[in-house]
Amino acid sequence: MDGLPIGYARVSTEEQDLTAPHNALERLGVRSSLIYTDHGLTGTNRARPGLREALAACRAGDTLVVAKLDRLARSLRDAKDIIDELTAKDVKLSIGGAVHDPNAPVGRLLFNILAMVAEFESDLIRARTREGMQAAKAKGHLRGKQPKLSVPQQKHLVEVHNAGLHSSAELAELFNVARSTVYRTIQRQFDSNR
């Protein structure tokens, strides 16, 4: 690779760890100080500060290094914007160690094909998720977030609130819930009595 290798890694959820992608970039020759990351952001979200910093760090002759294409972009439009920026800066792209020159016709074609595959994979994941949620809903397994208080506890909270002896903060402490839960419980009771 000519110039400096600049690394970019991303994980989609807060629970995921960046250690493995970080190590993969180091194995691809990127110094730890030149690895930019985004944690808990999906590839469809273009507002990724780590990606912005990585692209800003790239100079003519450098190479942007990613372990996998789907860590860089999950839509064709996003991939095209990134490749246009790399082309304008005369920066190459390395995907898993294979270097592609966006100024070369074959490199540009390959990148566009890979971007289309990444977008297709993202669409498949969304479709499977929707199908799974519909199946779970049909079986009665998908009910959303469960309330913090049982129905009898909710009734008791409303009774204590209506007695006017405790503030919302005191009710939250008595029932071991957040004040927002107290407000929602009271509001639901008020709405149901209208």
Automatic annotation (TrEMBL):
Pfam families: HTH_7, Resolvase. It comes from the Bacteria. GO terms for molecular function: DNA binding; DNA strand exchange activity. Gene3D superfamilies: Homeodomain-like, Resolvase, N-terminal catalytic domain. Keywords: DNA integration, DNA recombination, DNA-binding. Transmembrane segments: none annotated. SUPFAM superfamilies: Resolvase-like. One of its GO terms (biological process) is DNA integration. Belongs to the site-specific recombinase resolvase family. This is Recombinase family protein. It comes from Cryobacterium luteum.
